[in-house]
Amino acid sequence: MNGQADAGVAIPDADPSSGWTKSWPHTPLKLPERALEIDRRDNGEVILRNPTPLDAYPNQLSDHLRRQAARIPDQTFLAQRNDNGDWVHLTYAQTRDQADRVSQWLLDNGHTPDNPVAILSDNSLNFGILQLASMQVGIPAMPVSPAYSLMSKDFAKIHYVCGSFTPSLIYVEDAAMFKPTLDAVKPRATIVATKNADAIPGVIAFDDLLKTETSEALERAYATVTPDSVGKILLTSGSTGMPKGVVNTQRLMCSSQAQIGQALPFMHEVPPVLCDWLPWNHTFAANFNFNTVLTYGGTYWLDEGKPIPGRFEATLRNLRDVKINQYVNVARAYEMLIPALEADPSLAEHVLGDVLYLFYAGAGLPQVLWDRLEALSIKVRSARIPIMTSLGSTETGPPAVKGYWPSDTTGTIGLPMPGLEAKLASAGGKTEIRFRGPNIAPGYYRNPEKTAEAYDEEGFYKIGDAVKWANASDPLQGLMFDGRVAENFKLLTGTWVATGILRLDVLSHISPLVSDAAVTGENRNEVGLLGFANIEACKQVIGAGSEQMSPEDVVTHPAVHNALRKRLADYNNDHPASSQSVRRVLLMTEPPSIDAGETTDKGYLNQRAILTARAEQVQRLYDGSGADIVTT
Fold this sequence. Notes:
disordered N terminus, 9-stranded antiparallel sheet, 31 strands, 5-stranded parallel sheet, alpha/beta, globular
């Protein structure tokens, strides 16, 4: 089955409005033809394949680094602000030189592929150098969420990581900042730091690694790396227990980049320029963003901001300061960016003016944000900028299926990438999708039991996500995300509740009063929400006198309840079925907990972990006891 993808979606010119210009013509992206093979089995399973042959890919990721260092040596690869706020640039040639020196130091000091190099800090230039340096000589790089060290109260996960994965080296950006963690954990590893190395006895300054002179031993070690060598160990969020270490082979990373280049061929002609905060300990930024910029010779501006109150101002400053051609982020970032662009036409024109496409992942983008984003692009460009997403996980590269054509609505995740097979199988009243291909992880580091559980009898990885056809009569329209199989549940009536889709739909109505929510109602008569209240948005509803109110007073205020009740009524009018309507919300002031596995530092909420950790609040929601509960 083959079909021609749309090259772009043209919209008639919008009337110019005050403050806006339309100086950038819409240039349709070069996109591949959609192609799909479908094999329907007698047992009801369906196998989907992309018949397009997968392009060749190198043995290891650093082959791309060496190619770019020879081809564009003086182009900026990574840039980060220093303590004075000035941008520090690292060119491709400098990156290769420094990575080679650090590789040599690792070899000289007895580090081997048997133990990973752990990186506990946020993204930085030295982080990037160290992970490239370790991987290119066969030593796995293991980025670890800084939240395990800096936000945790008991250090349980970092204890587990150091004890189970036994890193031979631990890198921290600032030794003084991580001293409490390292004092508590007492890892049996060499500690390397960029700042305040003297804060902990025996810590080695990163600059000392850069003084190493390379030798032939480096090239010999480089030559031993194969596609099946472990490049990275990326940790799962640990939301159902302690983190698992997903084995990211060189084959996984390099084949994934070949797939991306075939799905988005314009990357070859217009290398990606990103301004990005997403953490390199998550596959989204670690593989999709970092590796794509490296593979296609782009520039990566490190954003020290985050899409949270008090930190997003830094992101806006950086977006004003640099010129990007792709905006790649999670839904939470769009939720904060869109109002800023709507309020500032010059910023909107600067950010969106050269953007080839907009990409979201990690969580669904509510339709209300999609519509506002399209309206902005029409004002700036007189046409819609393509908005795309994909479906994947830490175990899949990450993109396994990808939407590589413009869509009209949120949730279209696309079709399988070249070289990938997807299996559709019935599970929990839904259709689960599973994956097999070169970009799929072979398993979990030092954990054969979990590895065996993660794959079916044919070797397909069981991601746990459900999908449905965007148009069952036209499969080339692609698949849509249909929630998490494990998060769906039944009401007492036996009716299935599709948690993922319901959550997105209701948040489109009750945002920004509620920033996110967990869906409740398993074995009960009604669907409800544990809602994380957006205190500042609620204060705006209250108006005068709210500035000094406590969060507890805010979530019990009648004005907030009336506003939320009205929005819920609008949502319920459109979703009258018992499995879709929301009849009660408990407004919470306590943010999701890292230690309890309720959230990741990327902002993704784990529904099951929240409902487990807050079982008493779920009970109270249905008892109706509490001034923080809104019912309809």
